[in-house]
Specification:
Length: 232
């Protein structure tokens, strides 16, 4: 069976707190749209015949919210054509920056995940933040290197990098765990010892390891296969 196509996003965007998760998923879907073009006629500029239909696939129901996310990408130079207002005829032309396309930006590191992560059923189930977290965890993983099959960044670091509170981050981690999209190996305090400062005061030192986050790609794929069977 052929391997599922992967959508690659610059690592600098995956870990950029100035890009919110809704805008992140919108960009990912635009990159997916770019890659869906025939290989010999691929263009950074493409037109949606019905952008409201595209909004459904991004799980954005409100046009003002969609425009705001689009403006965010334009402001950061990730979409390069100016869009003053959403067209009334439903057609929308987008021009992506070459910097977000792997083949056109060889010097940048990219994070890739199977395109199924961007399926509407997944986005609806785990939200834009959940999709962003999956990409973020993946940005720390390199299956080609021993011991790099997981992410071990701190919750504080990860929440900060995607501009959410630690409480929100933990909430979505639990959602991803319940769906078995990720596995979390948790660590408690391992060692205790005392350190004495220059005034002779002792303080307790705790050796705490960060949790390890593993992505369960097969379970994500199974979820999509099950969801597609439920669609009549």
């Amino acid at each position: 069976m052929a391997k599922e196509f992967k959508i690659q996003i610059p690592q600098s965007i995956v870990r950029n707190p100035e890009i919110n998760s809704k805008s992140f998923v919108l960009l990912a879907k635009l990159i997916q749209q770019y890659n869906s073009q025939p290989e010999n006629t691929k263009s950074l500029t493409f037109t949606f015949k019905s952008y409201p239909k595209f909004m459904n696939f991004v799980d954005i129901a409100n046009k003002k919210t969609f425009k705001k996310s689009l403006d965010d990408l334009i402001e950061k130079g990730l979409v390069t054509n100016k869009i003053k207002a959403l067209p009334r005829n439903g057609q929308l032309t987008i021009t992506l920056s070459p910097n977000v396309i792997t083949d056109l930006n060889k010097g940048q590191m990219f994070t890739q995940m199977e395109s199924g992560v961007l399926n509407m059923s997944i986005i609806e189930e785990i939200g834009h933040v959940g999709v962003r977290i999956l990409y973020y965890i993946m940005s720390w993983i390199n299956y080609q290197k021993p011991g790099k099959d997981h992410c071990y960044a701190s919750v504080e670091r990860m929440a900060k990098d995607i501009a959410v509170t630690e409480k929100t981050f933990i909430k979505y981690i639990k959602i991803l765990e319940e769906l078995k999209f990720i596995r979390v190996k948790r660590f408690d305090i391992r060692n205790e010892n005392f350190k004495t400062d220059k005034n002779g005061n002792e303080s307790l030192l705790l050796d705490r390891w960060n949790n390890h986050y593993f992505i369960k790609h097969d379970n994500i794929k199974k979820f999509n296969e099950k969801s597609s069977k439920l669609i009549v």
